Amino acid sequence: MKVWVLRHGEAEPRANTDAERRLTAHGREQVLHSAAHLLGQPLQAIYASPYVRAQQTAALVHGTLGFAEPVRTAPWLTPESNVQQVIGQLERLGLEHVLLVSHQPLVGSLVGLLEQGHVQHPTPLGTASLAELEGDWPLAGLMSLCSLYHAP
Predict the structure, then answer these.
(1) What is this structure's pTM?
(2) In the CATH scheme, what is the code of domain 2-149?
(3) Phi/psi of residue 104, each to 5°?
(4) Contact, 47 vs 74, CB < 8 A?
(5) Which uninterrupted H or E stretch holds 115?
């Protein structure tokens, strides 16, 4: 199984609510750089947080890859989502190759937990950073971090 975890691109600092913050022009460029690292990968699905900046990020990746399936909105991918719940959702999906688009602190905690088995040292992920994990099951400490790309 491979799981790619992508943090949204740079977003505007303010909006009416955190969920409504949109990507900046720089954020869109960052996402396009990260999306290039997914070209040729056998993705089965793209799941994204319902927040605007994550939806925009997922849409840019979707378009760059020419991905046939629609982006799936996952309410369990918001910034404060429970990392154990996310792992449970991954198990239930039963997919071999999936991209998750979300936010800090969730993405750092998720990558850290899957790789190290705990959340004491979250993996640092800047805007549009892309982590690639591989393992037999999406369980704490049972996946290997294959690559980590930090967008410019």
Answers:
(1) 0.97
(2) 3.40.50.1240
(3) -80, 150
(4) yes
(5) helix 106-116
